[in-house]
Amino acid sequence: MSIFVSDSFLYNKIMFAYMKTLILLLLSCFTLQLSAQTNIISTNQKAEDIMLGNYNPADYTAQLIIEHPDTISQRINKEISSDSLKSYIIKLGSFYNRNTGSDTLSPITGVGAARNWVYSKFEEFSSKSDNRLVTSFLQFDQQICTMGRHKNIFCVLPGTDPNDHSIILVEGHMDSRCEGLCDITCQANGIEDNASGSALVMELARVMSKYTFKNTLVFVVLIGEEQSLAGSTAFATYIKNKAIKMKAVLNNDVIGGIICGKTSSPPSCPGEGDIDSTHVRIFSYGGFNSPHKQLARFSKLEYKEQLTPYLKVPMGINLQTPEDRTGRGGDHIPFRQMSYTSIRYTSANEDGDADVTDPNYKDRQHSFRDILGVDTNNDGEIDSFYVDFHYLARNCVLNGNTIAMAAQGIVTPDFDLLSSPKNMVNVQLKPSVTYPFYRIALRSQTNDWDTVYTVTNLINLVPVFKNFIAKVYVSVSSVNDLGIESLFSAEKEHSIVATNEVTAIPEFELLQNRPNPFDEATYIVFSSRKAIQEKNAYVLISDVSGLEIKRIPVNIKEGINEVLYEHGYHATGSLVYSLVVNNRVIDSKRMVFAN
After folding, report:
1. How does the average pLDDT of the chain come out, rounded?
2. 3-state DSSP call for residue 585?
3. I want to staple 223 with a disulfide (CB 3.0 to 4.6 A). Which of 140, 178, 210, 231 is the partner?
4. Contacts of 364-367 spanning 24+ positions with Cβ under 8 A
């Protein structure tokens, strides 16, 4: 059933019906073609110059400067509009098919018409904000679905700090697809995946362009996500080639739906038909000393402390163990692969695992069924929506607040861990810029911080609570006079001792997996006093009876070593993991999975 009733719809339907047989025959002759990306350029040199720091901040000063973070945070919460988000999504759906290889010449259908519309909206937002947004295409050449040239759309809001030209980037992909990866004739409205993320980025550009930030903000609507993350790979490559300083990347993909599908990719929802409009997942790479996990924790902390007192419906933020859903990937990954800090926001509930090769697949994701909603009473109007626009607005506020706080330009301090008495951590802060306050975050076996202290001295003894078994991971941030944190530092490991005496450190130490209990994935962690080149070192996974399930080879490095074990979803029980070096079992521990 079609969901859009407009003057152009009948034209679209007739045109695509006429073309479909011929084009599908042509497409059947091709498989997805991915070649090397070349000629990656910004079509607006001014946008590139700003990202490089080659501009005068005074040229982009707002007539009314609003820069107090509390004011910005609360205004973002009030000004993000569910109605605006809905209007963007309906318009994106009206282009019928936004496949990366679809039409670029039609003014009303295909990816070309869609990207031109997004560009025009960025220009419109700029005109209403003292022309402070600078809009551009990021053009690149690559053979994808028989199409050779492609364009991401982005706009830049220049920062005011003449000394810190690092950028903060928020992204969402615009391209859509049906069951066929290169099918350019199907009705591929792509509402949840990912008109929702594109609309979120657009709404942030509209609202945040009114305000003033120390760091430059970049709002990006990508193409080519469905074809091996081509658009984000091009943008990350461009950033790296130009040596643009990147502070953080926030990716939004499948961010507006609230209904659990039958095949939702783990870690996800309880079961088909479950509704969740009050939680969101943040995925990020790594475990110990991961800047990506630190950014996810920062996002949650700033939301909790900065916004929660003013919210009618606070969001629960679930920090996930893996970088993405099992067997899946998103546009944050190319940035991480090029050493840029990046995270992904995704709805708590997701409609499908996108396995369109399964003949029994009936969920909406990666299907012509990924539509806005249904007309339940046959009056010609959609009255039951698959995207919850209020939920999408709350996720938009979460993103906006994270960006606004990170863009305050506060400098992250360095620190040392000093000799400590029992059940304490002795932290010596070494800031390059002096601030009135600092924060010390302690983490044990969880993805989140267990305790965050606020201090004023440069040397601080802080207590360690009983939930820290053997190790504590410490990081710090600076806090300005308005109470806003910098991004947190890298983590350092502190061993907890029961007495003030120095204890012997074993060659290897197997730690408790984290998180535990875990969902579909967990990090198995051990420490080593030195790097060794053992050919026979591995983590052994077995059931409680001793039956071997899996061996995971490891290259042992000095310090903390982490191994990601993906058990799968929809199972409960216990497993045993062991560290084995040269056929010797160093230690074994039990872990619990509960999902």
Report:
1. 89
2. strand
3. 231
4. 364/192, 364/261, 365/192, 365/193, 365/254, 365/261, 366/177, 366/178, 366/179, 366/193, 366/226, 367/178, 367/179
Smallest Cα–Cα separation from 2: which of 257, 261, 375, 361?
Answer: 375
| Residue 496 near residue 467 (C-beta atoms within 8 A) | no
Distance CA 114, CA 153 (A): 10
How far is 141 from 37, CA to CA, in rounded Å? Answer: 6
Instruction: State the Cα–Cα distance between residues 7 and 13, nearest whole angstrom.
Output: 11
- Cβ pair 391, 258 in contact under 8 A: yes
- Please return the burial class of 533, using the count of CB atoms within 10 Å of its CB with bins 0-12, 13-18 and 19+: exposed
* Least confidently predicted of 270-274, 442-446, 479-483: 442-446
Per the CB < 8 A criterion, the answer to whether 89 and 176 are in contact is no
**Residue 401 three-state SS:** helix
Inter-residue contact 102 to 186 (CB < 8 Å)? no
48, containing H or E segment: helix 45-52
The CATH code belonging to domain 414-495 is 2.60.40.10
- Say whether 231 sits in a helix, a strand or coil: helix
Q: What is the largest CA-CA distance in the chain?
A: 82
Name residue 176's amino acid: S
Do the domains 414-495 and 508-594 sit in the same CATH topology, yes or no?
yes
C-alpha span between 361 and 378 (Å, rounded): 27
Torsions phi, psi of 154, nearest 5? Answer: -150, 160
What residue type is 566 in one-letter code? E
Task: For residues 115 and 104, give the distance between their C-alpha atoms in angstroms, rounded to a whole number.
Answer: 9
Q: What's the one-letter identity of residue 328?
A: R
Q: What CATH architecture applies to the domain 508-594?
A: Sandwich (2.60)
pLDDT digits (tens, 9 = 90+) for 99-142: 999 999 999 999 999 999 999 999 999 999 999 999 999 999 99
Fold of 7-58+68-354+369-406: Aminopeptidase (3.40.630)
CA distance 123 to 237: 25
- Residue 267 near residue 279 (C-beta atoms within 8 A): no
C-alpha distance across the termini of the chain, in Å = 36
375-430 pLDDT, tens digit each: 888 888 898 999 999 999 999 999 999 999 999 999 999 999 999 888 889 999 99
